[in-house]
Amino acid sequence: MENALIFNIQRYSLHDGGGIRTVVFFKGCPLICPWCSNPESQSFKREVIVREGLCIKCSSEDPYKCINSPLECPTGAIEYVGKEYSIKEVIDLVKRDMIFYDSTKGGVTLSGGEPLCQVDFCIELLKKLKMIGINTAIETTGMGDIDKIKEIAKYLDTVLWDFKIMNSEIAKKEINQDIKVMKNNFIEITKQNVNVIPRIPLIPGYTDNEENIKKIIQFVIQFEITKVHILPFHQYGSSKYKGLKRDYKLLDLEVLEDERVKEIKAIIETYGVEVIIGG
After folding, report:
1. What is the mean pLDDT of residues 60-81?
2. Which one in 70, 119, 182, 278 has a CA-CA gap of 20 to 30 Å to 201?
């Protein structure tokens, strides 16, 4: 794969792998999580997004009826989401921050969307990152080809593996995830020489119930997992849905109270696992 479709390259991130990191967000995901905070990551095609807060109403009172193209908009209120990058272009951007990686034990994290959907590009990118001594990580739902997962693991220091819904029928219905595939791939990644950290998004009514939490932990501790990240639900990405002209079904969903997050943390800790909130 010569190029990859990427929708953001975020520099100076303090999450997703430790230290100061550059996070490369790949476009396209096989899942349909209704709580997704990056809805612009879901489609495998370039899209147009409207950012109302930037609109100066230069051609229309309604930015959704603007006659300007994304290339003509003077403020970036209308812009394309998704750009093709070559490996060289990504590497050139990453190299700008190597001094920060070295001083903070940071590096580069591949995220999305689902980076495994553009796995050949990711493998070649990671190879080159390791050649120049950069720490590497990936954030994944585990939905990919098992042989490619074995290959990509050779060039990774850390894998941040998202666990969502463990009930097979509910997972298929709600987020289009095949739990059997995910589990088999997780078993394989734990056999590789890479640090694996499970992450659990705490989504009220979807993932936060005690039965689901216990199923996740009971599964992962079979593989000598000692640390888990929990990610409380937020509404930070909700405005993007309107900008993409999509419905957002969870607008009225309230965030978990701190006490409930602490309760879930305590449940996990009974299994002897360290729990990090966020990360």
Report:
1. 89
2. 119
